[in-house]
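User: My instructor asked us to take a sequence, write out its structure as tokens, and then describe one feature of it. I'm not sure where to start. Here is the sequence I was given:
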Amino acid sequence: MRYNTLQTLILLLVMSLWLTSFAEGQVGKPSQNIAVFTTAYNEALSAKDIPKMKEALDSILAFQADDWEARRQRSFLAWETGDWASLEADYNALARHYPSNVQIFERRGLLRWYMGKIDSACRDFRYVQIFTSGLHSQYSHLTKSLCNFTLETRGTMNVLEDAIFREINTLRQRPAAYIQAVEEEFAMNASIIAPREGMIVLREVVQTLMNTPPLNALKYALPLKLAAQDHADDLGQHRHFGHRGTDGSLPDERLQRYAFHRKSLGENIGYGAKSARMLVVGLLLDDGIQGRGHRVNILNPAARSIGIGTAEHAVYPCVCVQMFEEALYPSK
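Assistant: Let's start with the prediction itself. The structure tokens for your sequence are:
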């Protein structure tokens, strides 16, 4: 009996030592684990598999939080995945470690600006401006125009813009079901929204919506909203029409006032609609427009973000500008 008890104790001790040895082999050598995760990251990078790239970087940083290159790479990926909490945490860590790297402060400032954290964004932009002795005109522009910015009046959607935003997403998420709305609006306002092609363009749109799979809902983006609002105000105040502003600016240039290095997927402009649905259906029909560019923008599967600006117009009751982009932006 004593022999069996002793034998059992010895066996348990051996097993305990083996498990300890095994655990040390797995987690006691972080350099080996990091090498494994680095290999996984490189493989995911070759395959352009963003979720796996981020997973590998998360694992590397779990073992070695001061791997600044891994943290920098993860911050780039966060823009693609929309992981804003991780992105802000990485920028905070990078800013502490690289206090002279103005690009980090610029990017963190942009992130905070997009999120509506105007005061925090301005602190970052002022830091960059001071550090670079004002040599970068783009930072000066942001500091001057954004730090005195009233987010409540220009950065939020009004009732009409919110209705247009919802209408576009209803169309994108259920294209085939939206055919009924198109037919109803056409029956009431064909002479306004389709005066040139009439039934021809209606049948074309019905066929297009039947063949369009459900698309992602678009997210509201502050920089796109501001770029769209700038152009809507310009068109309204100057009795102007078209995509070129009275100052000669084009959509990409207007967007880059608020989002550096970004390009829009497209810009839609609608005039005089009596309702959000009438506006959206009119742009979807795109009566008399070669290439149906407005329809293409609304149904673009690459689009992920939108900004909408409206204003009174000297000729029509109102003008609405919509700007689309494939990048995701943080929101409040």
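For the description part of your assignment, you could build on this observation: The chain is about 60% helix and 5% strand. Try explaining in your own words what that tells you about the chain.
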